Amino acid sequence: MTGKARTPRGFVERTIDGLLHAMERAVSAEAGAAGAGWIQRLDPRVKLAGLLSLVAAVALSHRADVIAALLGLGIALAIASRVPLATLLSGVWLAAVGLSGALALPAVFLTPGRTVATLPPLGWTITAQGLTSAGYLILRVAAAATFGFLLVFTTRWSHVLKALRAFRLPLVFVVVLAMTYRYILLLLEAAHDMFVARRSRTVGRLTAGERRRVVTQSAGVLLAKSLHLSGEVFLAMQARGFRGEVYLLDDFAMARADWLALVCFAAAAAAAVWVGR
Amino acid sequence: MHIPDGYLSPGTCAALYAGAAPFWWVALRRLRKTLHTRLVPRLSLFAAFSFVVMMFNIPLPGGTTGHAVGVALATIVLGPSASILAISTALVIQAFFFGDGGITALGANCFNMAVVGSLVAFLVYRAVAGRAPLESSRRVVAAGLAGYAAINASALLTALEFGIQPLLFRDASGAPLYCPYPIGIAVPAMMLGHLTIAGIAELVMTGGVVAFLQRTDAALLAATAGRGVVASSNAEFGGAAGSLRPLWITLGFLLVLTPLGLLAGGAAWGEWRTSDFADPAARDAMTAASLGHAPPAAAPGGLARLASVWTAPLSGYAPPFLRSPTVGYALSAMFGAGLVLLAVTGVAAVLRVRQRSGTAHDTESV
Amino acid sequence: MNLFEIESLTYRFNRIVALDGLSMAIPAGTRVGLLGANGSGKSTLLRILDGLYFPESGQVRFLGEPLTEQRFGADAFAHQFRRRVGMVFQNPDVQLFNTTVFDEVAFGPLQLRWTAADVRARVMDTLERFRLAHLKDRVPQRLSGGEKKRVALASVLVMDPEVLLLDEPTDALDPRSQSQLIDLLMGWTDGSKSVITATHHLGILEEIADRCFVLDHGRLVAERTPADLLQDQELLDRTNLIHVHRHRHGAAQVHSHPHTHGL
C-alpha cells in the first residue's frame, strides 16, 4: 500500500481541537494582559467604560463611513497595545467577520432597491441598498468584535470583573463570573483528557449509537464531576470564613493618564454617535 | 444561535436586556432562599460545565455533527431559575472572552436561550414526564423533547428578532441598518437548521445525559421531578416540590408583551383576506412585504373557496365590544394562550391518568 | 485540656457509614498523625473537626466547646473558629477558587473583615514567606502541583491559625515539594501550634507526627507513637497500611516482605 492514510477527522478529534483552541485562547489572553502596550496600563474601569461606549457607538451609527472610522480606531488601538495583528485576525476576524460575510452575501441580491449591477449567468440583481446593508453588517461586526477583543486581551479577567463591580453589577454575579472562569479552565482540561483517552482506546469504527454514547457519557461524567466539585469548593470556602457575603479588595486608583484616556474615549464615542446619527 | 453585535438595533438590544433583567432578578431571589451560600459554587460550576459542553461535537443521523447549548439539561438537573442564571453566565463569558455572541446582543442571547429556553424546557419536560419514576424511559423521552422544544423556541424568537430589523430600521436610502433579512426569510432560514441539526443535537445530548444519570446517580434528577415523586435536598423548590407558579408569572409577562406584535404593522405575511386582493392600499402593503413581488390581480381560487368555511369568533382579533385595538389584541392573546394551556394541561392530565392505571410505583431517592 | 474530644461519632453518606461510633481525644500542642487506608474515615473526621460536617449522633468538642450547626450560625463564633482552625484539602483545585494567587491568599483575611491595608500587608508578607511573590498575579490553573499546594497552604496560614488540619498533604507532590512541606511541619514542634495530618503515607510519619491514631472502617483501632506503630506489622497489615508482594531491591534477589511505597 502506498501513500499516507489520512486520519479521519471524527467528532472526537474535532471536539479535542475545539477544547484545545479554547484553552489556548485563555492562555494567550492572560499573556496579552501582561503585555507592555499602552492600553494594558490603563485603569480597568476606564477600559471597560471606554471600549464599551465605542461598541455602543458602533451600534448607534447610521453611516457606514463612521463605522469604518471606528473600525480603524480599533485597529490603531490594537497596534498601540502590541496586540499581534495575527492574533486579532485569527481570534476575531476569521470567525466573526468570515461568518457575517457569508451571511451578508445573499442580502446583496435579496434586498429590494435600486439595481446597480446584474450577475450575467443567473440574472440576479445587485442593489445599492443590498451592498450598503451588507457593508453595515460586516463593518459593525468587525468593529464591535475588535473593541471586545481589546478589552479582554489587555485586561486581566479579575480586573474586568472588579471594574464591572465598580459599575454596580451585583456582587454575586461578579463572584460567580470569577469562579466560573477559573473552573472553565479546569473542566476544559478534564474534558480534553477524557476525549484523548477515549481516542486512544478506540479501535476500529464505532456505530452511530456508540458514537453518540461517547459524547453523552463524557458529558454525564463531566456533569457529575462538576456538581461534586461545587460541593467541595463550597466546603473550602466555608473553611476560610465564607458565610454568604464576599468581600473584595478595591485595587484601582485613577492616574492622570487614565482621566485623559477616559476623555478621549468619550469624545470619540460621542463624535461617532453625533456624526453618524 | 449566538447573535453577534450589529445584527440587532440598539433599541431591540435594550428591549431584550430589559426583558431578561426581571428574570435574572427573580431567579436570583428564589435561589438565594433555597441554596443560600451554596449558590455561588453551584452556579459557577454548572456554568463552567455548560460552557464546556457547548463545545462537544455530537454525531447526528446523516453523518453531520452539531452542538448543544445544554439548556434543557441545566433545567432538568438544577431547575429553571438556576438554569437561567447558569446559562446566562456561560453566555457572558462566551461573549466577552471568546467573542461568541455580541456584547450589545448579550441581553438578547440570554433572553432567547437562557430565559425562554429554560422555561420552555421546564414546561415540556414536566408536561411529558408527569410523575414517572426517576429511572423510567419516559423521562428520557421527556428530556429529549424538552431540549428540542427549547432550542427551537429560542431559534424562532431569534429569527423573529432578526426579521423585524429590516422592517423597522432603515437608513435614508432604504437600506436595512442591521439584519437585512425580513421575517419571511429569517424564520425559514433559522428554523431549517434548528429543526434538523441543532434541535436533534440538543435532543440527543439532553436525552443521552439523562439516561446516563439514571444509571449512575438518579438523585441528580430529583430537583424537577415534581410533587410526590421524590423528596431531596437537591430540590430547588423546597417543600412545594414542582411549583409551576413562576411559569404562570412568566406567561403573564409574555402575554403583556404581545402588543409588540402591533409594531410589525399591517398584516403578517400570508395572512390576508380575499378582499385585500382588490383593495389598492392593501395590495401595496402586500407588495412591500413580499420583497417587491406584486400579488396576483384576484385572490387565488383555493383561498376564495375556503375563506368562507370558517368564521373565527374573534375575527380581526378585536372582540367587537372593545374600542381599543391594543386591549383587544392583548385580550385575544390571553384567550388564545389560555386555550393552548388548557390543551396542554388536558393532555398532561390524560397521560397521568393512563400512567396511574399501569404499574405506577414511586422510586425512593438514595 | 484536650484540643478535640470526640464521643461516639457516627456519620453516614447516604447508606455508607463513614464513621462508626468513633471516640478519641486529641491532645493540644502536638503533631498528630491520623492514619488509615482510603475509606477509613480520615477525611470525614477532619471535616467534622473543621466544623464542615456535623455528625448524626455523638459529639465533638473543641477546647471544651461543642461544635454544632447552631453555634456556627453565630457570626462571632464562626469567625473566631475559622481563624483559629485552618484546613488544607487534599485536592488543591478545590481550594483555589479565586482568579489570582494574590486574591486567593487574601480571601480568608477578607472574609474575617480585616482592613484593606492589613490584608494587603499580611498577604504580601505570607507570599514572600512561601516564595510565591512572583506568582501573585497568576491564575491558579497554570501553576504546578507543588506551587498549588504552597498557595493552598499560604491561603490558610495567612490567618495564623492555632490548629492546622492537613488532608493527605503529600499527595501528588514531587519529591522536592514533599520535602519542603515536611521541613515546614517539622518546624512546628514548640507546642504553640497543633497539627493533625491525615495520611496513609508511612514514610514521612516519624518526621511529621509525635502521636498517631489509626482508623479502620470508621473506628479507632490504635493510638501509638510513630516508632511503635511502624514496628507493629500485624496492625499495619490488618488496617491495610502496608502490603506484601514480590519485588527486588537493586540487584538483589526477588523476595517479598511487608513494605509500603513512595517516599
Q: Overview of this structure, please?
A:
The complex is a heterotrimer of chains A (277), B (366) and C (263). By secondary structure, chain A is mostly helical. Chain A contains nine helices and two strands; from the N terminus they run H-H-H-H-E-E-H-H-H-H-H. Chain A has one domain. A two-stranded antiparallel ribbon of chain A has the order 1-2. In chain A, strand 1 (115-119) and strand 2 form a beta hairpin. In chain B, strand 1 and strand 2 (65-66) form a beta hairpin. Residues 231-245 and 355-366 of chain B have low confidence and may be disordered. Chain B has a domain at 10-242: Arp2/3 complex 21 kDa subunit ARPC3. Chain B is built from 13 helices and two strands; from the N terminus they run ααββααααααααααα. With 366 residues, chain B is mainly alpha-helical. In chain B, 47% of the residues are buried. By secondary structure, chain C is α/β, with parallel strands linked by helices. Chain C has a domain at 2-90 and 162-241 and 254-258: Rossmann fold, CATH 3.40.50. Helix content of chain C is 35%, strand content 28%. In chain C, the strands form three sheets. In chain C, strands 6-7-8-3-9-10 form a six-stranded mixed sheet, with helices on both faces. Chain C has a four-stranded antiparallel sheet with strand order 2-1-4-5, covered by helices on one side. In chain C, helix 5 crosses helix 6. Chains A and B meet through helix 1, helix 2, helix 4, helix 5 and helix 7 of A and helix 1, helix 2, strand 1, helix 4 and helix 8 of B.
